[in-house]
Amino acid sequence: MNILQLLLNPPTGLGLSEILFISLLLGMMHGATPDEHTWPITFSYAIGKYSTKGGMAAGFLFSLGFTIQRALLTTLGYIGLAYFYQRYNLDGPVYIVVGLVMAIAGSYILKGRYLHLPIDLALGGKAHHTGKASRLPLHEVHERDVPLKMTIVHGLIAGFGFGAYASIITFILAPQVPGLIYAPLPGLMFGVGTMIMQIIFGAVFGNILRIKKFNEDEIKVIGKRAAGRVLYYGGWVFVLAGLLIVFFPSIDSWAISTGLPIPNLDAVDVGFLLVVAVVGALGIYSIIRGYQEAVAIRNQRLGSGSLVSSTPHS
Predict the structure, then answer these.
(1) Do residues 173 and 71 touch, judged by C-beta distance below 8 A?
(2) Whole-number Å distance between alpha carbons of 269 and 275
(3) DSSP letters of 165-213?
(4) Whether the Cβ atoms of residue 206 and residue 47 lie closer than 8 Å to each other
(5) Beta-ladder partners of 51
(6) Which of the two ends of the chain, N or C, has the fewest CB atoms closer than 10 A to its terminal CB?
């Protein structure tokens, strides 16, 4: 049996140290593969913090909430109360709640505390997104700071999502620990493994905006607007996916195999498409849009002879 087979199909009779080590490695695999419950959240907040340190903080705080929930989950697995995951499909409700929290956070960043609904555009809300607004001088930009502590809430909620990795630690590893007091540990180690990888990816995501030579104010504009858009519109994508699964449960079973034996990479399914849509399509669009807005702001500043510093950061 190779290492991958051992991790994905752990045998019985394992010692506590072996259980915890396998849980840690599974968590690292979970954090490193494109999971819809981790990547969209970490990406959104990390680009909003536009730095290595801020991105690492986003990954850490999200994983902190996620780790707490996973410790609870393996405790339920040990005492036999996690059966409801086998009986009920919670993907739809979890997507809906995660999406609403994303949209609330995005709305706060872009527009203040008021949560606009998509129908606002049909009712004249487009004025909030006009080109004129995007060309305001930097000192008149009104985006709120990215509420990084909200990532803990995201992590707690997202932890209720259930996939292949969660099944292994809940139904195979947790029941093997020597007593109830040890039951949270597999979930804790799984969360730590996820945290390690999310901190790394958060650092990478947070540095994306440093590729172009913008000054600090311009990077803030791009980062906050991109984060706000990804959270707000990505949140509604999650809500839509959740509603479709609730009303048409068979959608959640749809998958096209990739032939890879690694969970999150083994199939193109709803979760994978959510990652592609939110982190890929919407994330790239939001950064490009923010870049265009920053260029427009820079040109307006130069044209008006503003004395605001434009020294680029390396």
Answers:
(1) no
(2) 10
(3) HHHHIIIIIGGGSSSGGGTHHHHHHHHHHHHHHHHHHHHHHHTGGGSS-
(4) yes
(5) none
(6) C
